[in-house]
């Protein structure tokens, strides 16, 4: 489902913002050619992706330096409207932006010259609580409402592409940024909610279920922020690197 309009403030993106975007933002999904076997023997691609880089001429000049604004998906950019966890309800949950400011912020990052990328684990595909087509559709709906070119990489289960492995980042760089002279690792960053924060990191909040997003950023070698640090400018919270 597209983001609930009650939760989104499209007027925050000024006309200037949208008129500068000349790249088709619709996602064109492909399978990574490495397969992963489920326990029942059936095969799925270990990663599915959609990249805008072949069309995004801003980033293709010989001497350009690519700065990447990268994000996790569930509970970093979007949430379920009813608060259910995705593992319980991936195929049916209505989603909305996690915070009202997010679409404006993403458009502004694009306008400021960042290449936007999403790196998400969707193990429900392997576990059959959702399907590849359902995952694609949910992301398509949200990205279409955003109207900004976004590169999306989805690991489908417990395989080599699953964060905190940096493999999806490597696939992005090796397959889509070869004509860019360098990636600006100092300007690039990753935002995710799997950050190892302890219980009550904000009053009443449970501990993060894992630290995989923070570990992913460390494995890639770029700065890390939680959604609350990045979108709400909150102070950083205590965390543990291992599972909490
Ligand atoms: Mg998440």
UniProtKB/TrEMBL annotation:
Pfam families linked: PNK3P
Molecular-function GO term, any one: double-stranded DNA binding
Signal peptide annotation: none
Superkingdom of origin organism: Eukaryota
Annotated GO biological process: DNA repair
NCBIfam families hit by this protein: DNA-3'-Pase (TIGR01664), HAD-SF-IIIA (TIGR01662)
Annotated PANTHER family: BIFUNCTIONAL POLYNUCLEOTIDE PHOSPHATASE/KINASE, BIFUNCTIONAL POLYNUCLEOTIDE PHOSPHATASE_KINASE
UniProt name for this protein: Uncharacterized protein
Lineage: Eukaryota, Metazoa, Spiralia, Lophotrochozoa, Annelida
């Amino acid at each position: 489902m597209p983001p609930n309009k009650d939760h989104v403030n499209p007027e925050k993106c000024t006309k200037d913002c949208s008129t500068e975007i000349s790249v088709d933002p619709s996602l064109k999904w492909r399978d990574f050619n490495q397969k992963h076997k489920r326990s029942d023997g059936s095969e799925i691609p270990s990663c599915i992706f959609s990249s805008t880089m072949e069309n995004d001429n801003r980033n293709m000049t010989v001497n350009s330096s690519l700065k990447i604004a990268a994000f996790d998906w569930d509970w970093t950019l979007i949430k379920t409207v009813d608060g259910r966890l995705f593992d319980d309800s991936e195929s049916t949950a209505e989603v909305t932006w996690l915070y009202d400011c997010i679409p404006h912020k993403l458009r502004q990052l694009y306008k400021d010259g960042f290449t936007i990328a999403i790196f998400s684990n969707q193990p429900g595909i392997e576990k059959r609580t959702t399907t590849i087509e359902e995952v694609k559709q949910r992301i398509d709906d949200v990205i279409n409402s955003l109207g900004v070119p976004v590169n999306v990489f989805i690991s489908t289960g417990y395989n080599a592409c699953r964060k905190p492995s940096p493999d999806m980042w490597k696939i992005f760089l090796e397959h889509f940024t070869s004509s860019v002279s360098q990636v600006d690792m100092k300007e690039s960053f990753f935002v995710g909610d799997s950050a190892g924060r302890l219980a009550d990191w904000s009053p009443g909040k449970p501990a993060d279920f894992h630290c995989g997003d923070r570990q992913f950023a460390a494995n890639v070698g770029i700065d890390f922020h939680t959604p609350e640090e990045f979108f709400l400018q909150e102070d950083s919270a205590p965390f543990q690197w291992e599972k909490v």
